[in-house]
């Protein structure tokens, strides 16, 4: 550190202080990489690039950074310690968010008592790890790259301490580059147009490139451009704007396409004129018509804003949005997930005028098997690493924003090993009015100012989806990976809340995909045009070209619309709350998006062409029913002919992954399942299986009760280990009104039938809300019970191509069928969709291999709870309560966890009978009105047997259950996953009333016992007999908690193969 | 901060029910927010349910002199992640209070807080707010000179956790916040809640004075160092501290997250057992205690309080 303006501060733990960080690195290296590091010592490093006297440096280090109880401080020396042979230094690459550095800068400003621009980075935080063992450089690199950092965002130095510790501090370079280039399209051949699109990552196909070329060649365009002083050919910025606006992400071209659908079995052919319009928008319009006809006019805003809005009561709105962040999470799991959750938070925050109060987050995650031990493809991250990174991203994104993560789900399937699915949901509450204006409206007039608020702009996320191919180096401060900064967003969020309530905002939107190009482009559609002055946009560092500034996806930014007369007041508020606001232009009504840099034209695009000019896609879909076989059961030996305690007849392959055999090619000839006489072991195995076992280690690292309003949490009961079906959150402390939140997702059924998979997922989410005490909408005129659903489709590439995607037509047919089920479900239950998203290219290609996700849809549901105190939880409440099965069980083991345990897929996929389901749900609602139900758990993965076990987990009750000898085979009764069923308990004194109400829909199974023993009899013979504490232990000690559980010293002694 | 009309600060009120006014003479609670603090709403709700008037203000309003802490009876530091907690929980906020010179003559907010306490008023920190009070040296403040004497750092488990714990009140504690309380259940939600006491002498002094006012306990109510009953491995199994005056109080768990009986994970079974039980949560008692204590003090020493308000 030669120059006097650069200093290094190193904090190490005092002798005797527990070095948890170092210990975790040692343990993880042993567990996951099989490397013995010996002791590991961690140190925090801060490089300060700011003129400080020696005293100032010393004071800053000892008083602000070091904890006097914990730390020793070293200044301007980067040396190892006695007994440590090697080191790993983890720094950040140029431009990567460094919240720790920013915080340190804040502290420096406070101790110096001088203003210090926090937007210019003066302090760079790093971590230094010293390792006892003299590991070779290749091993050090593995630890660095696989456990400590990500090559895309971190600069990693490793080596021997004896050779000197190499430091790294990013030095963003480059001068201003106000260069706008012109790209000629005229005269280019089709092949050249496609090549240009590919080279510049426009992601536009030939028809789209031709449409752009033709637009610029048109005489009218030429005349307009000449008059406005624009070159005849498009500028780089203009092509970038068009590419962003026309991207699948923004325009949903495939959901809007014309689809020719053929059913190869029946020969039926039909044309679908836009999936979105046919199955989502029109279906919701029909639901709304029925609602309004019945005096239920709570559907306020659907599909047309960042999030959907429904009315809670005359004073407030509930705003609900769920999105995915899959591709970024595949490459940088932590960064992908945290930007996913923060980005999704911005949607309800910037709905209508903006300034809603966030109420809760949910997340649903789909991963490959974290215990996978095979080879990885180039660039593919291990599923365990993706799981851990995503989990941490959600922890930081939710906890640090003060938004409770109230529920979620994790689905494991090997086909998510290439691209994981990361669904983030956020619910919020907004007053109906802000300063006398309707809060949900977005009004903009010509002359209104365009204000960028929040973070600054860097090269982050330019061309989001393709960043993995960009080489990052010292001279180009490009970092294509985004890391969210929850604290920056929290400040902006607090500001928006106040600005909206004071009437300073006309409206707002978030800057996500496409950055300013997208946010200003969309808002300009309201007023009819905009002028943007890009030189005013504050940058993280110099060196961005105008087009880069316009399309950068730097995080934590909002675009605000402010009337000129309110500029002074909002600017003052921003200064007071330390949120940077920049006036970057104004809205117009001239029909053009006009972008300038220092007065020079950068882009001037016709708004109509920009938003409506994209050519429509025509796609092909072909449905063929998969060839499926139902396995046959071989009967157990007659229990009377063998002695007590005879070994179970188990012909399961317990060594196999529970997911094996579920893929498309998983046909097994002559499938047979040999049934045991006793199912205790089968139930125990199911409870400990990857897709059923407890997620407690994940759940507890999310704050699920900040705000103090969470009434039904993911885990409840005296043990805190009883899993629940839906979350319940109250809106405020003044009333008992609240909202129930559930998730329906069952991708494995899609291997049997995509329609039934989608219908079942929808029903699953509905019945979870019914289980927790919610009521179906529109049963009573004007009852005001809102439901708000987001649909999120995540499918593999479904556009047919003879070579690259030969089964594209089949995949698209699956998507069509999923949408058909969605339409049928919304109509049957009268439940509207309010927003949603589709992610169409969930494939991972490397080394000539393609891993595609199974077609997946998530239905994220919310419904009003009139009184959260009447919520019903899943766990048994009292001994001698009577246990009922509600709903009908069918021979529907196809796709079940029971079959999966036996390596089978089966054929009989569970189907939803919407009419019967609705009738049952209506009656359950009536039973709850009469307070007849003490506990209620929906039946899903693992069927009745797993539900029975789970309902005992809250307190340690047991149950005595008798299953009928007649009817379905025992295994089917226990494990069928037929939809629209519940396991409910009723107090003895309410049995008569309950049975009268439910009639034949309720089957009496037995009673709750105090002895902690689960006994299930069939034809009088015990078929399950287990201590419920043992069952709970099997569930709790399943693979997820084991993988993420507290690392103990025991793990140091043996390595495992991961 | 720029304020609407004559309103001195942003009053806490539900969006749906604007216009609630405080009765004259109500206990006045000031709740700080901004910069990553995120439990201010439930903190304010707790005071309102306890009969006080709660005012949430952005920290800058206080630092810039638009709001004076001396107009209030109790100063509150809520939980959250102030300034992202990147340098260690509560560190940056504590630095700001200690070093940022606001008033004339280099006066800091910490100077004001010392005066506030000397005036017989109260300071309360929960979770991140507790961390701030510890890093400032306001807790335990054995030496009376407000320098850090203990610290709170990463949980022994190395991870953030949200789980419910049982606390036992130290009978030797003299703080009015815990008047008449013996035990309570509350959620912990933190990653850095492990109390570290640097030496035996400090530990002995804390114990002798009964400043370790709250202890993690097992099902029997006995102090425990067993995870997860003691969720973070804190020294003395300590969950909360007071200063020797009892006026400054802080704890890692969240009593403001247990204002209603329906916050408890086992509420549904418990209400089945006792349908007529109170709908209040156990955490509310702490707020009722301090509000009652201040109200009583204010009625008996009204003139003194007036003087302090004119500071």
Automatic annotation (TrEMBL), chain A:
Subcellular location: Cytoplasm
Major subcellular site: cytoplasm
Signal peptide: none
Region (Disordered): 628-669
EC number: 6.3.5.3
GO molecular function: phosphoribosylformylglycinamidine synthase activity
InterPro entries in the record: PRibForGlyAmidine_synth_PurL, PurL_linker, PurM-like_C_dom, PurM-like_C_sf, PurM-like_N, PurM-like_N_sf
Residues binding substrate: 346, 482, 553-555, 839
Domain PurM-like C-terminal intervals: 446-595, 879-1017
Span of domain Phosphoribosylformylglycinamidine synthase linker: 195-253
Main enzyme class: ligase
Record-annotated active site: 249, 325 (proton acceptor)
Binding site for ATP: 321, 791, 836
Role summary: Part of the phosphoribosylformylglycinamidine synthase complex involved in the purines biosynthetic pathway. Catalyzes the ATP-dependent conversion of formylglycinamide ribonucleotide (FGAR) and glutamine to yield formylglycinamidine ribonucleotide (FGAM) and glutamate. The FGAM synthase complex is composed of three subunits. PurQ produces an ammonia molecule by converting glutamine to glutamate. PurL transfers the ammonia molecule to FGAR to form FGAM in an ATP-dependent manner.
Protein name: Phosphoribosylformylglycinamidine synthase subunit PurL
Species this protein is from: Hymenobacter artigasi
Organismal lineage: Bacteria, Pseudomonadati, Bacteroidota, Cytophagia, Cytophagales
């Amino acid at each position: 550190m030669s120059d006097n303006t650069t200093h290094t501060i190193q904090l190490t733990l005092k002798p005797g202080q527990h070095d948890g960080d170092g210990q975790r690195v040692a343990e993880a290296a042993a567990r996951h990489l099989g490397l013995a590091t010996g002791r590991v010592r961690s140190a925090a490093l801060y490089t300060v690039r700011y003129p400080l006297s020696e005293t100032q440096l010393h004071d800053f280090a000892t008083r602000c950074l070091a904890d006097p109880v914990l730390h020793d401080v070293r200044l301007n020396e980067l040396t190892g310690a006695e007994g440590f042979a090697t080191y790993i230094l983890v720094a950040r690459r140029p431009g990567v968010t460094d919240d720790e550095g920013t915080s340190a800068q804040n502290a420096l400003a406070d101790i110096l008592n001088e203003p210090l621009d926090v937007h210019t980075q003066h302090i760079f935080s790093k971590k230094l790890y010293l390792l006892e063992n003299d590991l070779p450089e290749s091993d050090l690199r593995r630890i660095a790259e696989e456990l400590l950092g990500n090559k895309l965002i971190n600069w990693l130095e490793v080596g021997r301490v004896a050779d000197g510790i190499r430091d790294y501090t990013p030095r963003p370079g480059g001068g201003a580059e106000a260069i706008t280039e012109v790209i000629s399209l005229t005269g280019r051949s089709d092949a050249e147009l496609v090549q240009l699109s590919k080279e510049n990552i426009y992601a536009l196909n030939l028809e789209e490139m031709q449409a752009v070329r033709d637009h610029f060649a048109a005489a009218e365009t030429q005349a307009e451009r000449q008059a406005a002083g624009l070159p005849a050919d498009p500028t780089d910025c203009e092509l970038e704007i068009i590419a962003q606006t026309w991207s699948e992400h923004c325009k949903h071209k495939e959901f809007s396409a014309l689809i020719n659908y053929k059913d190869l079995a029946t020969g039926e052919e039909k044309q679908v004129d836009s999936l979105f319009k046919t199955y989502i928008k029109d279906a919701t319009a029909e639901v709304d018509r029925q609602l309004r006809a019945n005096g239920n006019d709570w559907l306020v805003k659907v599909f047309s804003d960042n999030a959907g809005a429904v009315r809670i009561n005359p004073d407030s709105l509930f705003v609900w949005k769920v999105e995915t962040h899959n591709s970024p999470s595949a490459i940088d799991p932590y960064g992908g997930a945290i930007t996913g959750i923060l980005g999704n938070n911005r949607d309800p925050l910037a709905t209508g005028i903006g300034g809603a109060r966030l109420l809760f987050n949910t997340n649903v995650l789909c991963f490959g098997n974290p215990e996978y031990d095979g080879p990885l493809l180039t660039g593919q991250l291990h599923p365990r690493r993706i799981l851990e990174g995503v989990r941490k991203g959600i922890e930081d994104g939710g906890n640090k924003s003060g938004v409770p993560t109230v529920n979620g789900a994790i689905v494991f399937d090997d086909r998510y090993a290439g691209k994981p699915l990361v669904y983030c949901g956020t619910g919020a509450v907004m007053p109906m009015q802000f300063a006398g204006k309707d809060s949900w409206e977005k009004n903009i007039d010509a002359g209104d100012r365009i204000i960028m608020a929040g973070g600054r702009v860097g090269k982050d996320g330019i061309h989001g989806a393709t960043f993995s191919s960009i080489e990052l180096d010292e001279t180009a401060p490009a970092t294509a990976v985004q890391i969210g900064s929850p604290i920056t967003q929290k400040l902006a969020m607090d500001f928006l809340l106040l600005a909206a309530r004071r009437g300073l905002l006309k409206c707002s939107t978030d800057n996500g995909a496409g950055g300013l190009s997208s946010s200003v482009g969309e808002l300009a559609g309201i007023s009819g045009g905009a002028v943007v002055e890009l030189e005013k946009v504050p940058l993280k560092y110099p060196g961005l070209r105008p087009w880069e500034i316009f399309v950068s996806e730097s995080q934590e930014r909002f675009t605000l619309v402010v009337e000129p007369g309110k500029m002074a007041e909002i600017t003052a508020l921003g200064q007071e709350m330390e949120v940077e606001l920049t006036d970057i232009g104004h809205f117009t009504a001239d029909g053009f998006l006009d972008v300038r840099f220092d007065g020079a034209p950068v882009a001037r695009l016709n708004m109509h062409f920009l938003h409506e000019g994209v050519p429509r896609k025509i796609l092909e879909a072909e449905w063929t029913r998969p060839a499926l076989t139902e396995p046959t059961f071989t009967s157990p030996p007659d229990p009377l002919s063998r002695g007590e305690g005879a070994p179970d007849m188990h012909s399961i392959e317990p060594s196999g992954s529970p997911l094996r055999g579920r893929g498309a090619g998983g046909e097994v000839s002559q499938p047979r399942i040999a049934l045991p006489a006793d199912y205790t072991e089968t139930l125990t195995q199911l409870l400990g299986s990857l897709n059923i076992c407890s997620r407690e280690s994940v759940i507890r690292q999310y704050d699920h009760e900040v705000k103090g309003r969470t009434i039904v949490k993911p885990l409840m009961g005296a043990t805190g280990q009883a899993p629940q079906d839906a979350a319940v959150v109250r809106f405020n402390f003044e009333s008992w009104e609240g909202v129930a939140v559930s998730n329906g997702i069952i991708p494995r059924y899609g291997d049997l039938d995509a329609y039934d998979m989608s219908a079942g997922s929808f029903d699953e989410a509905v019945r979870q809300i019914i289980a927790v005490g919610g009521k179906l909408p529109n049963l009573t005129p004007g009852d005001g019970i809102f439901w708000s659903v987001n649909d999120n489709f995540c499918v593999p590439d479904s556009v047919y191509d003879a070579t690259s995607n030969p089964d594209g037509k089949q995949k698209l047919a699956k998507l069509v069928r999923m949408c058909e089920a969605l339409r049928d479900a919304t109509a049957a239950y009268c439940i509207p969709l309010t927003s949603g998203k589709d992610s169409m290219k969930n494939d991972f290609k490397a080394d000539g291999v393609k891993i595609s996700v199974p077609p997946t849809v998530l239905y994220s549901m919310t419904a009003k709870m009139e009184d959260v105190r009447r919520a019903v939880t899943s766990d048994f409440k009292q001994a001698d309560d009577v246990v009922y099965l509600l709903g009908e069980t069918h021979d529907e083991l196809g796709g079940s966890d029971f079959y999966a345990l036996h390596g089978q897929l089966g054929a009989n996929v569970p189907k939803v009978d919407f009419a019967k389901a609705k009738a049952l749900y209506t009656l359950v609602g009536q039973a709850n009105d009469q307070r007849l139900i003490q506990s209620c758990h929906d039946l899903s993965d693992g069927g009745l047997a797993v539900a029975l076990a789970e309902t005992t987990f809250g307190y340690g009750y047991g149950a005595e259950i008798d299953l009928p000898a007649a009817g379905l085979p025992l295994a089917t009764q226990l494990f069928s996953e037929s939809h629209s069923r519940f396991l409910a308990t009723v107090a003895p004194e309410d049995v008569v009333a309950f049975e009268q109400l439910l009639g034949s829909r309720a089957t009496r199974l037995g009673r709750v016992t105090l002895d902690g023993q689960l006994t299930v009899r069939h034809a009088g013979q015990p078929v399950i007999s287990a201590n419920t504490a043992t069952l709970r232990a099997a569930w709790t000690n399943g693979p997820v908690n084991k993988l993420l559980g507290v690392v103990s010293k025991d793990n140091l002694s043996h390595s495992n193969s991961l | 901060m720029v304020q609407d009309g004559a309103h001195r600060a942003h009053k806490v009120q539900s969006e749906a029910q604007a216009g609630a006014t405080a009765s004259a003479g109500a206990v006045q609670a000031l709740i700080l927010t901004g910069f990553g603090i995120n439990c201010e709403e439930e903190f304010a709700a707790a005071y309102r349910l306890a009969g006080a008037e709660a005012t949430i203000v952005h920290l800058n309003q206080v630092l810039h002199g638009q709001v004076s802490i001396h107009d209030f009876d109790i100063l509150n530091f809520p939980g959250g992640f102030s300034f992202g907690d990147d340098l260690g929980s509560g560190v940056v906020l504590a630095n700001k209070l200690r070093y940022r010179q606001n008033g004339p003559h280099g006066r800091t907010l910490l100077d004001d807080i010392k005066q506030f306490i000397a005036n017989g008023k109260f300071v309360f920190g929960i979770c991140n707010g507790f961390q701030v009070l510890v890093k400032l040296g306001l807790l335990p403040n054995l030496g009376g000179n407000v320098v850090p004497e203990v610290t709170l750092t990463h949980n022994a488990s190395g991870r953030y956790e949200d789980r419910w714990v049982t606390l036992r009140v130290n009978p030797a504690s003299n703080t009015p916040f815990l008047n008449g309380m013996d035990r309570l259940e509350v959620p912990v939600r933190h990653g850095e809640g492990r109390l570290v006491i640097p030496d035996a002498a400090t530990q002995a002094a804390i114990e002798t004075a009964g400043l370790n006012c709250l202890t993690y306990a097992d099902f029997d109510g006995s102090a425990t160092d067993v995870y997860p009953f003691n969720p973070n491995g804190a020294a003395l199994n300590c969950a909360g501290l007071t200063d020797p005056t009892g006026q400054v109080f802080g704890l890692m768990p969240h009593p403001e997250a247990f204002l209603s009986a329906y916050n408890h994970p086992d509420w549904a079974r418990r209400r089945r057992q006792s349908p007529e039980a109170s709908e209040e949560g156990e955490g509310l008692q702490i707020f009722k205690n301090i509000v009652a204590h201040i109200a009583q003090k204010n009625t008996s020493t009204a003139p003194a309080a007036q003087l302090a308000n004119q500071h």
